[in-house]
């Protein structure tokens, strides 16, 4: 093929309908939201943006395949909506071509959840499809209200294709609080989700034993979890570390409005005796839990048992398989769970 034909072939390929080229946009603590975002400098015209919100706000230029690269530093809510990054711009294209929001250096970008009275505060709230959140340190949040929730990463129930990868969730809602709602690392309510290679440590409020005055925090809090599964289908939770959850479980199933199906919990490590609840995973729901696989996990020093059950007497199971896990306690499943042992329930194989 001569040079002219080669160039024509290349031009034809590059102009095929639907062919796009991923773009990286930059955010820095010395950036400017009026800049182009296209260069990792503080140039007011061609340099980085100031806030990660700029990447995914209404009217954002980012599309599927693009990356928002967030530089080192601490970022918090800038517009008073109690969310550090509110993903409300464009959808990503697919699982293979999401819009990616990523710390430029692993854990170098820190998202500090704002303190508030009500109704809820988030590090990241995802209201679009095919979004990836990668490499952030996420912490903070405070509450002096009884109806406040604090969440590291949350999502809409209609979302598809969320990927939460290599983040460090810690000290979320670690304050004295009488809120009846949960403080969670991730509150999951989406479809086709992957939660992988994250660390969840010390999630939830302080207790009286930790220094709160009587009446300023719940007496026996059990609502604060590493991952709170409240709905959705087809979720893969793999290769995460859950460390010392004192006010709830590493993972809680609790879907009260829709059935939850296709949840795979593989190759995770759970460590530490929270001292407040039995087990590292609880399957608690008033709806069907189906096609759930809990396999190849390590449960190190849980309180009494590795798993437990709470179904309010109405939840049912179908094709739930718990196998090939390791634990440091003598009895894997709680035989005294309110609604009976999980491994003895119809639809569960252990």
Please describe what this structure looks like:
This protein is mostly beta strands. The protein contains two helices and 28 strands. It has helices at 3-14, 53-56; strands at residues 24-27, 67-70, 73-75, 83-87, 99-103, 109-116, 120-126, 131-134, 137-143, 149-155, 162-165, 168-172, 183-188, 191-196, 199-201, 227-229, 233-238, 241-243, 251-253, 260-266, 269-271, 281-284, 288-295, 298-300, 307-310, 316-323, 326-327, 348-349. The strands form three sheets. Strands 1-2-5-8-11-14-17-20-23-26-28 form an eleven-stranded parallel β-sheet, with no helix packed on it. Strands 3-6-9-12-15-18-21-24-27 form a nine-stranded parallel β-sheet, with no helix packed on it. An eight-stranded parallel β-sheet has the order 4-7-10-13-16-19-22-25. Helix 2 links the parallel strand 1 and strand 2 (67-70). The chain is globular.
Quick overview:
Helices cover 5% and strands 38% of the residues. It is mainly beta and 350 residues long.
